[in-house]
Amino acid sequence: MANTTVSIRERIKNPDGRWCWAPKLPVPEGKLKPTEAQRRGKYYLVWTERGKKREQKINGNTFEDAVKAARSKERHLEDAADGFERPDPLKKKPERITIVDAIESRLHSIEVSFDPATLKSHRQALRQFEKWTMRHFVDEINHDHLMEFRNWLMTHGNEHRFMKNSGNAMRTANRKASHVNQLVRITLGLPDGKGPIRKSELGKTKRNGFVKIYSEAQKKAFFRNCKPYEDLRFKTLYEPAFRKKELVYLEKEDVLSCLPGGEPAKFDI
User: Fold this and answer.
1) d(Cα 183, Cα 52) in Å, to the nearest integer?
2) Range of the structural domain that residue 184 is part of
3) Alpha-helical runs (H) found in 3-43
């Protein structure tokens, strides 16, 4: 038969100033007298659980606080002996973390530990999620909520107003959802692969293969061998990096500066 007895112990000071334990007290069954209930001290609970002696300081400093905690722990042990599981009343519940606080903490961690490109990618995804979600705490982000965000990104995730398509490509939406999934896993202290969604559910989040980057010497050699009309065409695409928004601010000198004498050449495009 399981031992469900909980005792109260008080830490007291001897006349010589040394701390010691007072004798164990059983949990009173009846109502406490006012003077007894408000008696202050350093109280601890002592009990046996799973064959081991346990001891814990109570939250509070009156004898009434100790009695309430002891009675609550006794009911918990009795329920466990009967096969019922319920939260331990002596364990402090962890504070719930808001999505806003978690995002700020995550972005700060990335800023000091990773390169600016990584920060930019995570910041865009997490800020979009912060605006989109109506939930308040990180532990409210579950599988369905995160997949709903991913699907929303594919129809409304493009923040550039000048683009014809208002949604993100599937790979981009998967990447952003992956960043939020990582936020939840790290914030809640979950092990790898135990976030709201699995990596296999998102599909590809990165491009296939490596992006080839030309050296400065290779780029100069390439443009040096271009005909004037080829130089103009390629530089018009190269300078704004294929971005429409950058193309709006492109100046004539950006694409014609390499011509002899700085004079624009006349040729058919």
Assistant:
1) 38
2) 99-202
3) 34-37
Per-residue model confidence as pLDDT tens digits over 37-59: 888 888 899 888 888 888 888 88
> Residue 21: which H helix or E strand, with range?
strand 19-21
- Same domain flag for 160 and 113: yes
Which of 180, 147, 160 lies closest to 245 in space, CA to CA?
160
SS3 percent helix, strand, coil of the chain, rounded to 5, is 45, 10, 40
Q: What 8-state DSSP symbol labels residue 262?
A: G
pTM value is 0.48
Between vectors from CA 45 to CA 33 and to CA 49, what angle results, nearest 5°? 135
User: Do 123 and 111 contact (CB within 8 A), yes or no?
Assistant: no
Dihedral sign of CA atoms 105, 108, 113, 119 in order: positive
Q: With respect to residue 269, please indicate whether it lies within any of the assigned structural domains.
A: no
* Same domain, residue pair 122 and 72: no
Using an 8 Å Cβ cutoff, are 125 and 175 in contact?
Answer: yes
pLDDT per position as a tens digit, 240-257: 766 666 666 667 766 665
- Tell me, yes or no, whether 207 lies in a domain: no
